[in-house]
């Protein structure tokens, strides 16, 4: 028996080549000409419905027509997170070698679940995880980790592991501590895991947006007196708002003394370990029980790629191993890792490949220099703002993030007026689509925030954007 030609979902070799080259050409044109595009897409649901709504078509359409439709109607209405003037949230600078790596992984449809399915894929994941373990000073032999879809899944995987190791099945009295600057994905993970709000302690931060240590200690003591079971302390190595690194060494001491799991969320700042003074900046990171890093941010990988590292790989296998009958024949020997036993997903894409290929092609040194450059660019931006009489630096250049607001010294605006003015500046810049620059809130003030992790962003890109802000501020 053989399926009808069209039911085989096949193209001819000539078609595969022709269409494949069209896709490559479109990507190369985008990467080479991205700077000439506008980074921001602004569209309402109604506009997108109007442009794109259709019923699932029963009949075939030529690939050319489908691709043309995508290039004309879909791609132009998507923000460009790799654009040099995309300054908000956490940009995704990406790199073309990894785009090719991801293409290979998809094209060969590599199943990266178990050893037996793809021995070399599992091996490359082991090798690249070892590169990372080494960078962070985690134990070589005992350490382990896994690539995930992103930082959110890495944090969830970490916290599930922490709960399993520290609490076993009864977590009714367990409490977890994190600061008010910790990333929202952590609270989301804790809620997904079934903890109640009463089991989450959000500790205030100090003037520098770091954990208020005394308040943390008080909270732990109070909880013990009340019969709660503190089990996990979550620190940030690079908060998303300000790039602030918590007092990792001090917090690790507290975790040790109190027998708490010490998780560090380095999804934003972890990559800084590659910078010249990275070891200093992230001092204490090696003391974590588990560490989240997010290669699709500052390791310049395309989406999706997160990573969890742990001090002891057995914690992962001890938490995530289930042994269904249909996987019995593919378990492999004990040195052969089945990544489906180290995390939540069974079927997983081959994420290690893009990381491996890009690090090998460019060399780790190129990544180090890119990150060093990001630091320098952010420092230069701070200097530019400090020299100006129109701007106030609210949180200084830290791990390539700076927060500032328009606050001319010759005008005496009230706090409410400043909030309004800076919101309006952001709105006008975003509406112009020339740059992505949105606000955040620090100490109750609305401020502009720049995250400068794109190595293709120049000082001119920054200056043009600040000048644009000044021009729209004059108009307001
Ligand atoms: C981005 C970020 C996350 C979430 O990672 P995703 O890859 O977006 O899921 C978690 N923590 C911090 C500190 C982040 O900056």
Keywords:
about 475 residues, alpha/beta, dopa decarboxylase, N-terminal domain, Aspartate Aminotransferase, domain 2, Aspartate Aminotransferase, domain 1, 3 domains, seven-stranded mixed beta sheet, four-stranded antiparallel beta sheet, 11 strands, about 15% strand, globular, binds pyridoxal-5'-phosphate, Aromatic_deC, lyase, carboxy-lyase activity
- The strand count comes to 11
Tell me the overall shape. globular
Fraction of helical residues: 40-55%
Sheet/helix structural class? alpha/beta
Q: In what range is the share of β-strand residues?
A: 5-15%
> What is the H-and-E element order?
HHHHHEHEHEHEHEHEEHHHEEHEEH
CATH level 1 name of the largest domain: Alpha Beta
Cofactor: pyridoxal 5'-phosphate
Protein name: Decarboxylase
GO molecular function, one term: carboxy-lyase activity
GO biological process, one term: carboxylic acid metabolic process
Q: What does this molecule look like?
A:
The chain has 476 residues and is of the alpha/beta class. It folds into three domains: 11-78, dopa decarboxylase, N-terminal domain (Up-down Bundle), CATH 1.20.1340.10; 101-364, 3-Layer(aba) Sandwich (Aspartate Aminotransferase, domain 2), CATH 3.40.640.10; 365-475, Aspartate Aminotransferase, domain 1 (Alpha-Beta Complex), CATH 3.90.1150.170. Helix content is 42%, strand content 13%. It is built from 15 helices and eleven strands. The strands form two sheets. A seven-stranded mixed β-sheet has the order 1-7-6-5-4-2-3, sandwiched between helices. It binds pyridoxal-5'-phosphate. Pyridoxal-5'-phosphate (PLP) binds at residues 90, 150-152, 155, 183, 185, 236, 240, 265, 267-268, 294, 306. The modification N6-(pyridoxal phosphate)lysine is found at residue 297. Keywords: Decarboxylase, Lyase, Pyridoxal phosphate. Belongs to the group II decarboxylase family. Its cofactor is pyridoxal 5'-phosphate.
